[in-house]
Amino acid sequence: MINHQTQLKLQAYLDGELPPGEARAIGELLACEAEAQPLLEELKATRALLVGNELELKLPETREFYWSKIQRQVEREEQREPAVDAPAPAPPWWIRFLAPAGALAVLAVLVLIALRSPERSQPLLASDDSHEIETPLEETSSFSFRSEAAAMTVVWVDSHRE
Amino acid sequence: MSRKLDYPSAEDEVLVRAAQKGDMRAFEELVARHRDKIYARAFSMMRNTEEAIDLSQEAWVKAWQRLNQFQGTASFVTWMTRIVINLCLDQLRKLKRLRAESIEQLDEDLGGVERQMPVVTPNPTERLERSELRLRIDKALGQLSYEHRTVLILHEFEDLEYKEIAKRMGCSIGTVMSRLFYARRKMAVLLAGLKRDGLR
To answer: Which one of A15, A46, A77 has the shortest CB-CB distance to B61?
Structure first.
């Protein structure tokens, strides 16, 4: 009895799936192995019977009904993913013109201001312009009054300056 | 341009090009032309009318969304059939109707029934009307497991090579060969009118 691997090779031979060397070997086997030829004939006859004899079925729904369901589904899918493939709509021409023009105008104004008032273009933390706010705590005193009834606090600050 | 198109008489390629530009009417015509074939392929794999209708519809929706990917290297109906086959395979996997390869391998290790079956000769010249023969073939296909039927359909009806079937089914070429061998041998028995107890 031919083994399973040989049976499968016999089938592959029939289907034209064997490389030339193996196909030759199977050809020789068919000449000398008594079981091989009837099996090949059975496989061949079955294949011949099936090919071109598939049952032709009709869809059990009317054209309109079937299409309406497909159409609805297509519309639903397109609403769910509106801009997957579609590019974003282009802005109107006046926005496309005004956007760079506006940016250039702002830039020009900034440059003009910088050129006309050089002192303002100094760094904000330059040592010459720095100022400190001092709070002479020694010269101040404070009194605070809290009224629970009125729910308010009054703080009186006195700087002692004449 | 689409207004001048005579949809019922236009060729598929013309309708596809129009549909690619967004012409829904052209796409409707393609659906009307090929809906039976796409449904029939879904039914042959699922063996259930409702599932076949749903999956065939889903295939058409997917086709509309991916229409720009259709390059025309194969015919439109071939492209559509591939879409519905992939959807059916996904669904069969989801429903666990396609067994894992390890279980298939277990069958092989235990010794497949197909190896012991005597050789039979299905007789195509049985003086059957073609429609009757087709009914008998369909009935026999219905008696195969999902795995065996799927391999047979993809090979005999869709003319796919072992490698392509293995890729689509997510199994090895060896498993494809084994399943195809079993499926053919069982079909031979069923079509020869033999009833064998103990065969799956």
So the answer is: A77
Query: How does pLDDT run across A108-138, given as a tens digit for each residue?
Result: 888 888 787 655 544 444 444 444 444 445 5
Angle between helices B173-191 and B130-141 (to 10 degrees): 130
Average pLDDT by stretches of 10, chain B with 200 residues = 80 96 97 98 97 98 96 95 97 82 52 64 65 92 95 96 96 96 94 52
Binding-site residues on chain A for chain B (CB distance < 8 A): 4, 7-8, 11-12, 15, 17, 35, 38-39, 41-43, 45-51, 53-61, 63, 66-67, 69-71, 73-74, 77, 85
Instruction: State CA B180 to chain mean position distance.
Output: 14
pLDDT of residue A125: 46
Q: How far is A104 from chain B (nearest CA, A)?
A: 41
Predicted pLDDT at B186: 94
Tokens found for residue B21: 């530009």
Say if residues A53 and B137 touch (Cβ distance below 8 Å): yes
Helices B12-20 and B24-46: crossing angle, nearest 10°? 110
Q: What is the pLDDT of residues B111-127, one digit of tens each?
A: 465 666 777 766 654 56
- pTM score, whole prediction: 0.71
Cα separation of A145 and A50, whole Å? 106
Q: Which domains does chain B have, with CATH numbers?
A: 2-94 (1.10.1740.10), 101-191 (1.10.10.10)
